[in-house]
Design brief:
With 304 residues, this protein is mainly β. It is 0% helix and 42% strand. The strands form 5 sheets. Strands 1, 2, 3, 4, 5 and 6 form a 6-stranded antiparallel beta sheet that branches. The chain has a 4-stranded antiparallel beta sheet with strand order 7-8-9-10, with no helix packed on it. The N and C termini lie close together (11 Å). It binds beta-L-arabinofuranose. The site of beta-L-arabinofuranose has 13 residues, from β2 and β15. This is Family 43 glycosylhydrolase. Belongs to the glycosyl hydrolase 43 family.
Length: 304
Amino acid sequence: APEVLLQPATPSDRYHFQSKGNPIITHSYTADPAVLVKGDTLWLYAGHDFAGGQKNYKMKDWLVYATTDMKNWVECPTPLKIGDFAWAKSGDAFAGHVTERNGKYYWYVSTNWSGIGVAVADRPEGPFKDALGKPLLTNKDCFASTHSWACIDPAVFINDDGQAWIFWGNRECYYAKLKPNMVEIDGLIKKIDFNGFSFTEAPWVHKYNNKYYLTYATGFPEKIAYAMADQIEGPYEYKGILNEIAGNSNTNHQAIVPFKGKWYFVYHNGAIETEGTSFSRSICIDKLEYNTDGTIKKIVMTTE
Ligand code: FUB
């Protein structure tokens, strides 16, 4: 079992560590990964769980890590906290996604009850500031949902034509265009038709060989499933389960990215012994491979 070092980054400096297999971070509990590749660096943005037998989510800030070789990592000082969104102070720092446009970095985050906010920074490691002073999206924008946590789990994808899209939701997957300023919705909010397949949360869109891939958590405990389409708005054809329930966590949440010629599947589990649980989760990384027809091989979860 990986050793739990419990050695947090100091607020004023960067903490260097080496990953020794999965989970890749053993000094903090991390969840809901999002990744951004910029030049020779992969930036990993994470939710931050606490240790110690929580019976519910306790998530008050987000974390950022960087690597150039997937082995040696740097944890930067905490770049964003739930308290940075004045309108969401009592919320939870749920899943987010960072994307770059015109030299600015936009971090779309779930605040759980209060909606989805967006923070902006000049550098990938922040510091990030609330860009709007209000939510970008709220439960009212989740027109087909009635539960209070429908407006979570944003994922942004910038298409080859430069159009940015945001996907999000719990139980229903919503999507919309973003204006070029990245902080306003452009036009109608729509819903993905899963054709009877069940969507729980955690959408992530990527493109490979002219196909759009929508990966997402399905069921509960969650597995990661995927669907493929020829157009960003679909229709999406269900392709199956990408990975099975991740050890000892009811949720999973994936990010998929190419980096230095290989594709990676980044996700979380509750596998740190003896404290890992659904509320004390840990980010893992495994290789992702395509079949010749563009479908994705099932992810083999490794510990190395
Ligand atoms: O981490 C809190 C929530 O659990 C996320 O927003 C979901 O995707 C699930 O991982």
